[in-house]
Amino acid sequence: MGTSILAVAITYSYLRRRQIPKKRLADIIGNTPLIYLKSLSEQTGREIYAKCEFMNPGSSMKDRTALALIQYGIQHGHLGVKNNTIYEGTSGSTGVSLTLIGNSLGCKCKLYLQNDLAQEKYNILQTCGAIIEKVPPVSIVDSEHFCKKAEKQAYIEGGYYADQFHNLANQQAHFQTGKEIYKQTNGLIDCFVMSSGTGGSIAGISQYLKGKNKNIKVILADPPGSSLKTHVNSGVCYTYQEAEGHRLKNPFDTVIEGCGLNRLTKNYLQAKIDYGFTIQDKESIQMAEFLIEKEGLFVGASSAMNCVAVLKAVEKYPECKVFVTILCDSGQRYLSKFYNKEYLQQHKIEY
Ligand SMILES: Cc1ncc(COP(=O)(O)O)c(C=O)c1O
């Protein structure tokens, strides 16, 4: 009798141990919470929600993109035991996610970044083990452009160029983000609002949502200096004033990092967007302070910009009741620029 009780106890404890899921980094990406923005909702008389993508393990929605790019590289034989180096041009967030997920899967990263980003982004990448090279902000047609450099080095050294702007695995990863949003709002979402960098997020999310309900509006939030808004609203991307090579680059056009562009990428071209707004830096800075004060949310620059665009969308589409936007990353990556009053004054950015 005593022995059989012992045997049951041992079996039970063995089964319990066997049942603990052995989740690794890649397994805990996504399924982020949706938060109700009470202050903005009460001000507008609408229901406004935000998806907390800063709660991904690499602290941004780029974890989803990076995982998809790495999986694509492995599936297509570009990444493996012999060839384990990923090359990418990044404004920081994708680089952090590629580096951390890469580390967990035995891959290394060589990253090319513009030399005008917030200093903490370089610090984080180097701390996490990425090899980084800073390049001047130049036109995409220039061989020194951060994406061109990454592609060329990958070719020379025989590595994998992840190509977040044109690799469609990026936007495919965000079908899941769209699916989560639809489920979390019980299908009641009327309007989705966010910015575009590579375009992967807004492309995947908009395709999923419009596939579920074609009446859901999708709105682009665009920073100053980007011509994606004009592309959405009038079908024309390039203007003389906005064409790269003529416009002044960061930090003079905008203090927002990671989004806005003056060219059409393969990922962006998959997006289904109804309307675009240009958001002034001053509006984004004020919104960031408002979110800290009223919601306790310390978010990155593009997240604040997204929330300003929600307010503009409320005015444009009075029939919409439920709005969802994205909080892409945390404010901690923006202390030296977006949240730094001295920096803003020095660069004559109103706030
Ligand atoms: C902080 C931040 N917000 C928004 C985006 C836009 O995301 P996507 O590249 O999917 O368009 C990016 C892109 O790098 C980013 O870094």
From TrEMBL:
Coiled coil: none
UniProt-listed Pfam families: PALP
GO molecular function: cysteine synthase activity
Residue span(s) of domain Tryptophan synthase beta chain-like PALP: 27-329
Signal peptide (from-to): none
The protein's required cofactors: pyridoxal 5'-phosphate
Protein origin, superkingdom: Eukaryota
One GO term describing the cellular component: cytoplasm
GO biological process assignments: cysteine biosynthetic process from serine
Annotated PROSITE patterns: CYS_SYNTHASE
InterPro entries recorded: Cys_Synth/Cystath_Beta-Synth (IPR050214), P-phosphate_BS (IPR001216), TrpB-like_PALP (IPR001926), TrpB-like_PALP_sf (IPR036052)
Protein name: Tryptophan synthase beta chain-like PALP domain-containing protein
